[in-house]
Amino acid sequence: MNLANKITLSRIFLLPVFLFFIFEQTPYGKLIAAAIFVLAAATDGLDGYVARKQKSVTNLGKLLDPLADKLLVMSALVSLVAMAALPAWIAIVIIGREFAVTGLRSIAVAEGIVIAASRFAKIKTVTQIVAIIAIMVNNYPFSLIGFPFKDIALLTAVFFTIASGLDYFRSASDILSERQPSEVTKL
Questions:
Q1: What's the CA angle centered on 58, arms 74 and 167, to 5 degrees?
Q2: Which residues have C-beta within 8 Å of that of residue 10, sequence separation ≥ 6?
Q3: Which pLDDT score, from 0 to 100, does residue 129 have?
Q4: pLDDT tens-digit profile of 58-81?
Q5: In this structure, are residues 7 and 50 in contact, taking their beta carbons and an 8 Å threshold?
Q6: Would you place residue 181 in the very low, low, confident or very high pLDDT band (cuts 50, 70, 90)?
Q7: What pTM value is reported for the model?
Q8: Domain range summary for the chain, segments of one domain joined by +
Q9: How many Å apart are CA 4 and CA 19, to the nearest integer?
Q10: CA gap 73, 81 in Å, rounded
Q11: For 89, left (φ over 0), alpha (ψ -120 to 50), or beta?
């Protein structure tokens, strides 16, 4: 296993630690969880950089990297909803978009087409991570001056989540056309 894949796996292995601290009933539990989330999120860019630099992009990495990203964001969203720190509808929009785009990519792969991450998708990921961190630290330090950064970050994340999802489906409209498959498989 190469270094890039080990970095990706570390993101997955940090999830139980993150979940432990986010629900830990100590004054510093949520702050520690936020720090772990930041560390895990930072590995997202690092693993891709290392894979490209060392020319060690692998199929395992192509599978694990988006899976680790989705697990990280989804576990944070569900945790924040469980703690009543995030409205459920926002988590549903974000998670629903992830399932829809994953389904679209699966259809594309079946057609022999690879759909690369768009610029919107990369912005979406960053805005989601920023919003999640702002919620976990309860808008600190912006709360000291009464600036609603957390709310702005959250609305921005929702906007880019929807925009990037629509962009994927617009780009893949040919794949989703009314063409019939050449063969119908019976189960």
A1: 50
A2: 40, 43
A3: 95
A4: 878 878 888 899 999 999 999 999
A5: yes
A6: low
A7: 0.86
A8: 1-69, 86-178
A9: 24
A10: 12
A11: alpha
Tally Cβ neighbours within 10 Å of residue 181: 8
End-to-end CA distance of the chain: 37
What is the distance between the alpha carbons of residues 168 and 176, in angstroms, rounded to a whole number? 11
Report H helices in the chain.
Answer: 3-23, 29-53, 59-82, 88-110, 119-136, 149-171
Cis-peptide into 27, omega within 30 deg: no
Q: Which of 30-39, 85-94, 114-123, 156-165 has the lowest mean pLDDT?
A: 114-123
Are 21 and 32 within 8 A, CB to CB? Answer: yes
Which residues touch 129 (CB under 8 Å, ≥6 apart)?
37, 41, 73
The larger pLDDT score, comparing residue 152 to residue 178, is at: 152
Within 10 angstroms of residue 116's Cβ, the number of other Cβ atoms is 7
Phi then psi for residue 128, to 5 deg, are -65, -45
pLDDT band per the 50, 70, 90 thresholds, residue 151: very high
For the chain, percent of residues with pLDDT exceeding 70: 95
In the DSSP assignment, the letter for residue 139 is: T
Are 58 and 1 a contacting pair, CB within 8 Å? Answer: no
Q: Residue 179's pLDDT is what?
A: 56
